[in-house]
Amino acid sequence: MKSGSYGQFCPVAMAAELLCTRWTILIVRELLSGTTRFNDLRRGNPRVPPALLSQRLKALEVAGVVERNPVPSEPGVFEYRLTKSGLELRPLVESMGRWGHRWICSTISMNNLDAQLLMWDMRRNIAVDPSPRSRKIIEFKYPDAAPKDRKWWLVIEPDSPAQICSVDPGHDVDLYVTVPLGVMTAIWMGHETFAAALADDRLRFVGDTQLAVDLRKWLRLSWVVQQERQVA
Prior knowledge:
The protein is α+β, with helices and mostly antiparallel strands and 232 residues long. The chain folds into two domains: 11-88, Orthogonal Bundle (Arc Repressor Mutant, subunit A); 112-223, 2-Layer Sandwich (Nonspecific Lipid-transfer Protein, Chain A). Helix content is 45%, strand content 14%. It has twelve helices and seven strands. Strands 5-4-3-6-7 form a five-stranded mixed beta sheet, covered by helices on one side. A two-stranded antiparallel sheet has the order 1-2. The chain is globular and about 60 Å long.
């Protein structure tokens, strides 16, 4: 019997041996969100050591859940994509997310603040519609975050996916957003609202007033919150 095995023929036990190792289900979450590159998988899981991420991806590849393909135009670079087997995990991951949002105390989840994960999740879920006619730069400032995580820039180009920068992109800022990290995370997770945070001055917008209105429309909240509300 291999090390770490439950030693049971039960399919639940066999699936758990693969999927319940540390970080594995979160890697699958990122792949289901459309992430394909190694470095981007790390951005979605900023605390996973690179060597462990490689190990988990290899295990998923051996199990037939993930396939790794070279990028022809970029020698030495690979993309990771879920196979048919891996794609069948979507309802499982979405159900876990809804269950966690519904039943795990929000006070506990709000103890796990992570500015990088928050900004990455916001970037990939933002719905810029209609697309602006010119580039827009939105600076987020989290005064209570660690110095390296205190400032982030959301870059929105016409007809292009939004991008995030942890280093000043060097363009004029159109809108400044100042908010405690916990408050922005609570808004993103549906525990707070923009309106409430603005009303008591925990959230402040300075700059382009129309862009501030648009930003509130573009940020559709976490996919978990969206899933929960659809089911409800």
